[in-house]
Design goal:
mainly alpha; 0% strand
Amino acid sequence: MLIPNIYRMIYNFDEQIDRRGTDAEKIDGMRAIWGRSDLIPMWVADMDFRTAQPVVNALQRRITHGIFGYTRVPDEYYDAVDCFRYCTNPYIN
């Protein structure tokens, strides 16, 4: 099954992001845990990739709204989850 373009995410896995000074546990917490800061941070599962722009945009829209109370989950959410599940593994229901 071909995945429609609207569901494809494009990532730049070559971009190097400096996480120092961002409270990243694997970088800024290294000295407190290991007593030094010159180690390769393989002791924690963390990714150094930017969040996908559609996710950032959705969060910005929600933050701009300014109301963070209880909300209902729209049907489109479940449709997106089902599409993702089927597109990544067509053998599950």
